[in-house]
Amino acid sequence: MIKTTIAETYKYVDQEVKIGAWIANKRSSGKIAFLQLRDGSGFIQGVVVKADVSEEVFKAAKSVTQESSVYVIGKVQKEDRSPLGYELLVTDVEVIHESTDYPITPKNHGTEFLMDHRHLWLRSRKQHAVMKIRNEIIRATYEFFNENGFSKVDPPILTGSAPEGTSELFATKYFDEDAYLSQSGQLYMEAAAMALGKVFSFGPTFRAEKSKTRRHLIEFWMIEPEMAFYEFEDNLKVQEEYVSYIVQAVVKNCQVELKTLDRDVSKLEKIQAPFPRISYDEAITFLQEKGFDDITWGEDFGAPHETAIAESYDKPVFITHYPTKIKPFYMQPDAEREDVVLCADLIAPEGYGEIIGGSERIHDYELLKQRLAEHELDMDAYKWYLELRQYGSVPHSGFGLGLERTVAWISGVEHVRESIPFPRLLNRLYP
Questions:
Q1: Where does residue 388 rank: exposed (0-12), middle (13-18), buried (19+ CB within 10 A)?
Q2: Exposure b/e, 126-142, CB count within 10 A at least 16 = b
Q3: I need a labelling partner for 400 at 20 to 30 A (CA). Which of 68, 200, 313, 352 fits?
Q4: Residues in domain Aminoacyl-transfer RNA synthetases class-II family profile (predicted)?
Q5: pLDDT tens per residue, range 323-382
């Protein structure tokens, strides 16, 4: 007997196989039962015909409950109406464990109920599809950076200083010292780039920001590359090539999942480098002409502003050269305009907001020291960071991509909370 998974049934057309699965749903008549089976790798329909099986098997198929675990044996058949392209003509059903009173039934449930049962909600078709797309983005991320000569480096999660100030950090005690949960691995990745040239990290980050919007999480995952000898334009090129790469990987390898989510794939197929770009100055003028009287030069953009800009494009758009005063201390000023820095935010289409923030970093020791003083940051805490500019400093650049916003955009789900297995929100630490 061939034991396989649902995802690999295509290898065994017209052959009998054994699959371990759960009952996602079922329906039956007097002579036939349809079992919706899932095993983590995918979903497939199992057809049980009364005339072709024993009375015991048909009784088991009709009575088995939602989310019961089973072994099923059956012949793999092509089925064009199935999203998978195949179905299983079942000859035997063995119940491993019978599930009773499964709380998430095939009906509408409120968001809070589903979030309280997130550990079970993940089993549903749409949540399964989002997690598979997330996995593909992660796989393609490693592939892209490995193919382009980057080394993976893991920065610490516990830090003694804050890249962008301490106001939105979770503080803790590190024995008798103050410490923080990392909001970014960037500063450490700059040190790694001085050793290894091109590096990237992928890990959890934390923001103690009391926000309830559909774009925000308290704990999220960041991909953060840093590159020695890369200037501003080089940085933008890597960003657009990377984003194009992961989007097209999903389009190629997650067709079933995108269909499950009713995602308009034609919009994703357009995501190819290069991406359009506008300056912060141009963005301010554009918004004011669109009737946004609340925004003036020197202020940061909110979600409505980013959405309005993104609606003019069918690709992600770079907004470049933000005012120095609204950006972190480490960003390199424009040589021709010291009131703006060599930075860019990448805004996703369809209202998903900023998915990347990046910049060329200050590489001059005296200027960085000046910026630290202006931001009233502790020189002793940043001594090691300053030393990177004392021993062979070079122009260097980097960026951070927020994984969950990117997953939400590519998947087409409305809220970022569905793009991470167990979201941490302002009022949610369970399950």
A1: buried
A2: ebbbbbbbbebbbebbe
A3: 313
A4: 131-431
A5: 999 999 999 999 999 999 999 999 999 999 999 999 999 999 999 999 999 999 989 989
